[in-house]
Design goal:
2 domains; seven-stranded mixed sheet; Aspartate Aminotransferase, domain 2; Aspartate Aminotransferase, domain 1; 13 helices; alpha/beta
Amino acid sequence: MQPSTRITTLLDGGSDGWEVFLKARALIAAGTSVTELTIGEHDIRTAAPILQEMHRTALAGHTGYAAVPGTDALRDRVAERVTERTGVPTRRENVVITPGGQAALFAAHTAALDPGDTGLYVDPYYATYPGTLRGAGGVPKAVQAHARHAFQPRAADLQAAAPGARSLLINSPNNPTGVVYSRATLDAIAQVCKAHDLWLISDEVYDTQVWEGDHISPRALPGMAERTLVVGSMSKSHAMTGSRCGWIVGPEEVVGHLINLATHTTYGVPGFIQDAADFALGLGDPFEREIAAPFRRRRGLAKEVLAGQNTVGLVPAQGAMYLMLDIRATGMSGEEFANALLDTHRIAVMPGESFGAAAAGHIRVAMTIADAAFVAALRTLCQFAESRAA
């Protein structure tokens, strides 16, 4: 018996981009010490008060089947948060709770696309995007955002790709580049979506990690609320990556259909997880700033290290927990550089090519280890790049 074409073609016969990461993990499993600057996993764990609330509510009995759309309390909390931050009136009926942001991305594309429909996404992209589109039955089509434009997608490129498409997926603050889309970029995106009748799927899981400029949710732009599905998550904002709690915010009618989808797939998120998420969101902006603070601080440290050399270039690091570094001066591809750095110095970074063709000749560095170790690794990385350039 053969599995379905849909499941066997998620990667379209190519790579999922995680080879260097898996190589590093194999070294670690064999007892080799490796400095990991690969995945977006906080170097702190979920805060004790959140875990205590999770424990309390589980012991109190909230361990049975949870409300599939999400608990009323959590949906109300998310709606209130979105209203306050974007100015767009949002109610419980506009929110469905999902098992993390990844499940939200899949559900959003299932809502936006019929089998065989084209879904656009911006390259560089988070590594799961093309496979998520294929899994939802769509045909993924990349729109490149170029290094020479600081990885801001251009209106002309979007316009050229849009005919015949049904959706566009964006991510700001962006993983992997750390770029925050400008108001001009978002206005251009909105115009393309309206002109070509596209659903806009906006992945905003890094909305609390903005170091320069402002985070603008495109759902707040004129005429966009009725065609935008916003993906959010507790993972990055509250260091709750393993709790798997996210959401989609969108038009009430579509949310109703998404609730039907959840009934037939995930059947909701455990109640005690939702209670903990509600509690965590109730801690407000000060707590979210506390969780984001190490990445803001390490960004500053990285800029100091990189200012002392001329080989490694820094893509404008405006948000998120990553740095995108330009290593083209070495004459190496991102894959060659990442493998050589791991082999010679046991420092693991992600090749830019893991995130699409537009990021070739770059590497992504996650700012997810203690400050001193991060600075030391970055200095070694720069020295290695200088030696290869020479």
